[in-house]
Amino acid sequence: MSIAISQLHPIFVGEVSGIDLRRPLAPDEVAAIEAGMDRHAVLVFHGQDITDEQQIAFSRNFGEIENSAGGTVTRPEQKRLSALMNDVSNLGQDNRPLARDDRRRLFNLGNQLWHSDSSFRAVPAKYSLLSGRVVVDKGGNTEFADMRAAYDALDAETKAAVEDLVCEHSLMYSRGSLGFTELSAEEQAMFRPVRQRLVRTHPVTGRKSLYLASHAGTILGWPVPEARAFLRDLTEHATQPRFVFSHKWRQHDLVMWDNRQTMHRVRRFDDSLIRDMRRTTVAGDAPTVEQAEAA
To answer: Does residue 62 fall inside a structural domain?
Structure first.
């Protein structure tokens, strides 16, 4: 059975069939998935009961895997997973839900804000691959917004205004918006702002997209209040229902998305239940803008 991709949303998101992610892929299968990503930006694979090692092997077909260090307040001795896996579950090392006031849980609530993975890194991420090992029956959907369609829908005046803008991205901005402001000196250094273009061009399709995230807190050369108000307006525009797909997780789904072309967020769920979600992140290959000392 060969790979087939059917469209799940009028403008993006594909559902992939005819593939078993537990086995090595042939070159033509890798090419078909990459072409599907270029077209759909989000791909859904159902029924993929995989191990961490199999997820890592699958992810490596698309580039180098990003090390998870630097994107969390979880200390090394608290980690459940290897450095190649991002633990976006609600679990501690004992595989039980974190306490309501646990610092790690409060930090991870930032995943409920619209964002693009690793936009807070000088070289931002290419793909994310999220495996639902244990899912919840109610809530916990992941929503995706097509930032290409959002850019296309801007009026000519706004397109001209955003074309050359550069933002600063940091986890301090996104978590600070939720009131998570108590950071150690080491964490502040780790989350130092980086610069990203507000408009990106896809290297294969040539389509332009808005590069927004809750991590974006300033625009170079703009007063901070004006910048944040403008970024809020753009985010409201980009997350209109017509641009958004909500994925209802099934056990053993794997969802893969292009961080250069989409934003996403998780929706609330009962945090007393186990939700074990494991992400691998394919690293990008270059900064979006030349980096300078930003903070």
So the answer is: yes
Contacts of 6 by beta carbon, 8 Å cutoff, 6+ apart = 14, 15, 17
| Predicted TM-score (pTM) above 0.85 | yes
The CATH number of the domain holding residue 236 is 3.60.130.10
End-to-end CA distance of the chain: 53
Task: Summarize pLDDT for 75-111 with one digit per residue, the tens.
Answer: 989 999 999 999 999 999 999 999 999 999 999 999 9
- Position 291 in a domain: no
- Structural domain boundaries, residue 279: 4-283
Burial class of residue 80, CB neighbours in 10 A (0-12, 13-18, 19+): middle
- β-partners of residue 142 are 247, 266
How many structural domains are present in the chain? 1
Which residue has tokens 């550069």?
166
Strands 4-7, 14-17: pairing is antiparallel
Q: How many angstroms separate the CA atoms of 278 and 204, rounded? A: 28
Per cent of the chain over pLDDT 70 is 98
The pLDDT of residue 63: 98
Tens of pLDDT along 102-120?
A: 999 999 999 999 999 999 9
The pLDDT-based confidence of 290 (bands split at 50, 70, 90) is: confident
DSSP for residue 267? P
- Give the CA distances from residue 123 to residues 46, 68, 159, 290, in Å, rounded to whole numbers and listed in that order: 30, 13, 24, 10
CB contact set of 227 (below 8 Å; sequence gap of 6+): 167, 217, 218, 219
